[in-house]
Amino acid sequence: MKSPEPARARISIIGAGPGGLTCARILQQRGIAVTVYDRDPGPDARNQGGTLDLHADNGQFALREAGLLDEFFTLARPEGQEMRRMDPSGTITSHQVPEADELFKPEIDRGQLRNLLLDSVQPGTVHWGRALDTISGPADGPRRLHFADGTSIETDLVIGADGASSRVRPAVSPAVPRYTGVSFLEAWFTDIENRHPHIAELVGQGSAHAADGERGLFAQRNSGNHIRVYIIQRVPVDWISASGLTVEDTDGIRALLLNEYAAWSPRMRQMITENDGPYVDRPIFALPVPHIWEHNPTVTLLGDAAHLMPPLGVGVNLAMLDASELALALANAATVDDAIRTYEKTMLPRSTETAKALEGGAEHLLSADVPDFGSDNDAQPYGLGSEGGLQPSPEQ
Predict the structure, then answer these.
(1) How far apart are the C-alpha atoms of 383 and 396, rounded to whole Å?
(2) Measured between alpha carbons, how far is 386 from 319 in angstroms, rounded to an integer?
(3) How remote is the C-alpha of 21 from its chain's centroid?
(4) Alpha-carbon distance 363 to 310, whole Å?
(5) Tell me, what DSSP letter sits at residue 390?
(6) What letters, b where the CB count within 10 A reaches 16 and e where it falls short, cover 335-357?
(7) How far does CA 373 lie from the centroid of its chain?
(8) E-only strand ranges, 26-148
(9) Do the Cβ atoms of 276 and 320 come closer than 8 Å?
């Protein structure tokens, strides 16, 4: 089958996360029709996750191409760029406070970013409750998408923007994410200025990190007077069930954690003992490095589906940059096949380089010796808000 012109092609994006929606928005702005399929029953079916920082040279670049940068800055929190490094006693050992006009990587809640993008695409673009099962059809197309509800549709291009547990990835690659050996346990704190003022003071307006070489804590202020804390440990992926507990057993898990963090100060252990509600288990997975595949004229990937990495501040930024570059390639190419080649020629080397830099990086989150907060290097071990590598956290 001859590859169609992008303007005449049936383009299907799997996953209504930041990457998929950014791609859809830019395509529609350039007059190219697209449909997004997402497994969730609706836009409010689940919490979208914590805060993330959008960098000027990738995430913000994509929003500029989408015509949404001004709207982003009305929602973003520049003060969230504050970074504190502490020791297990709670003593600040390094502190970065952003300048008043610093906008290199302001914070925004993931849910706010997702809503900004959702509101920007044409009504009816996203088809909710459409969980992809398999993809069939010849490599040169057309392809057929088979959904879990028994329905199917024919399409000329499948874009996998469906995150860590991508159902599109098997169409181009046999690779599956592997457990890194490091796990997060997420704890929530609400109405912090009234209910948890000591934690609010400890964390500040942005993020705070402490580690002792074997375990760590990473806290992030979100909007709405809310803080999320990630309890970081080197443990088996099934450590909760292996302890005879379930994730709903908050008291039992808390007792284990207090024993594990016994040498930490009571001030720091507040982030383990005072959380509101149950913990959320988030083991960190990553794709093999490098993750590349043979060119396919009808299927490609972006974001975590293409290059799942540890959550070190690049996940959403790279997903949105991927999305922007793919959409622009489709807008400027003679055929879909040409567009995919152009996109992957840039995306695959970039993601390989970044993945190599971050390989094993989850271990840095446990180290007391880490790069200085002042570094603007994307590979520094901070910026958990992008949530790349967290399981289960599908974008589809």
Answers:
(1) 23
(2) 10
(3) 14
(4) 10
(5) B
(6) bbbbbbebbbeebbebbeebbeb
(7) 21
(8) 35-37, 51-53, 83-86, 92-96, 107-109, 126-127, 132-136, 143-147
(9) no
CA distances from 182 to 175, 234, 263, 364 (A): 20, 4, 20, 10
Q: Find where tokens 């459409």 sit.
A: 130
Among candidate residues 60, 98, 123, 132, the one with its CA nearest the CA of residue 207:
98
- Reading the block at residue 9, the tokens are 């092609």
Return the structure tokens found at 43: 């836009």
Contact (CB, 8 A) for 173 and 186: no
* pLDDT of 40 above 60: yes
Distances (CA, A) of 283 to 238, 249, 253, 308, 350: 9, 17, 15, 13, 25
* Closest C-alpha to 325, from 78, 360, 317, 356: 317
**Residue 309: closest CA among 294, 281, 288, 324:** 288
CA 231 to chain centroid:
18
* Chain centroid, CA 113 distance in Å: 12
Which residue, chain included where needed, has tokens 């989408």? 66
- The first and second tokens of residue 231, run together, are 């309890």
Q: Does residue 96 carry a pLDDT above 90?
A: yes
- Which residues partner with 185 through β-bridges? 231, 281
Beta carbons of 52 and 198 less than 8 angstroms apart: no
The pTM of this model reads 0.93
pLDDT in tens, 109-149: 999 999 999 999 999 999 999 999 999 999 999 999 999 99
Query: Which has the closest alpha carbon to 267: 48, 87, 8, 71?
Result: 87
Distances in Å between the Cα of 123 and the Cα atoms of 52, 82, 159 are: 26, 37, 20
